[in-house]
UniProtKB/TrEMBL annotation:
Gene source species: Mycolicibacterium gadium (Mycobacterium gadium)
Keywords: 2Fe-2S, Electron transport, Iron, Iron-sulfur, Metal-binding, Transport
Name used for this protein in its record: 2Fe-2S iron-sulfur cluster-binding protein
Domain (2Fe-2S ferredoxin-type): residue spans on this chain: 1-94
Family of this protein: Belongs to the 2Fe2S plant-type ferredoxin family.
Lineage, broadest ranks: Bacteria, Bacillati, Actinomycetota, Actinomycetes, Mycobacteriales
UniProt cross-references to Pfam families, sorted A to Z: Fer2
Statement: the UniProt record of this protein carries the keyword Zinc: no
């Protein structure tokens, strides 16, 4: 499991294996401006300041994310899956905000899936 850091909000969110940045943020009780969720519109753009992400074979429209954008660390959060601990910065117009504070506290709790821990 990796950690997603949102420095402007001073928030850290655990990210499940294969989970996108967008899914992790929404699971944590937060939201921001996004569109199609399929890598075609570019509305969910953010900049990776530290760490790495992968699209894991998912299609990204060139019109939504150019090669120049990729070189600058810009990702589409609806498709980008962290491959390490990652720090992501959103533009102010993305309006990242807490919508369900109780969900954030639940998402921040590590729950063991090991059979030995459940015995």
């Amino acid at each position: 499991m990796y950690t997603l850091r949102l420095p402007r909000l001073n928030v850290q969110v655990p990210v499940k294996p294969g989970e996108t940045v967008l899914s992790a943020i929404c699971r944590a009780g937060m939201t921001y401006t996004y569109g199609c969720r399929r890598g075609g519109c570019g509305v969910c753009r953010a900049t990776v300041r530290a760490g790495s992400t992968s699209y894991e074979g998912k299609v990204i429209a060139e019109s939504a994310l150019s090669g120049e954008d990729r070189a600058a660390g810009v990702v589409l959060t609806c498709r980008a899956c962290p491959t390490s601990d990652v720090t992501v910065e959103f533009a102010p117009e993305s309006k990242v905000r807490m919508t369900v504070p109780m969900a954030f506290s639940m998402a921040s709790t590590t729950i063991s899936t090991s059979p030995a821990d459940r015995a």
